[in-house]
Amino acid sequence: MDLVVAYLRDRALRRERRYRDPLDPINISDENLIRYYRFPRCEILRLCEDLDPFLRRRTRRSHAVPTHTQVLVALRFYASGTFQHVLGDTVGLTQASVSRIIRDVTQILSERARFEIKMPTGDSGYPLEAFLMTPLGNPSIPGEVRYNKSHTKTRVVVEQTFGVLKSKFRCLHRSGGSLQYDPSKCGKIVNACFLLHNYCEMRRVPPPHDMVDDDGEIDNPAEAVAEAGTGQAVRANIVRNWFT
Fold it and tell me: Where is the protein situated, by its record's location annotation (predicted)?
């Protein structure tokens, strides 16, 4: 009986699917890498090296997905918003595997974004928070007027950045589906894209040639709510120290 069990187990292992990785960033031009993944070869390899300790599968099984494939699958999703089963068909992975990859990479990048990204300004549709400054509704002194003018100038830059961000990472754009996921997952994907956009800017990665115009949506996600005391204190301190 033991011999039968051993034989069946050995036969099952021989039939086990072997994952043959079709993605090789070394043999793709930088132009196409930027087009499909938004980063050139050197930056993709840097990102793979950085994320490898977190993404490497602790298994010797032949169908473990390499780190660079996980990174490229996630980057392709961010860049295009392509359905997961379509991505899976392209690289020889199941939809479930693609979903896990996007989840894992997004989680890591989103956690980093919490420490590396600051959200400085929002318009009147956003709540005032200690980390998010909004304009004063009725400025009554010169310092408050100057604060509002400075806030408006900064807000223009932020809005332009949102347009570039949605065009570069099409999963955020209406043409890419605008993220048909639950709010928690959407927030993590947005954070991951913010972080990757910052990496592009810091490392002067040229924009892809397939950039599209902004979709004209108004970034005003919430009605104004009662302003928190901590936010009021931070804003008052900014007005007092920088604009008075």
Answer: Cytoplasm; Nucleus
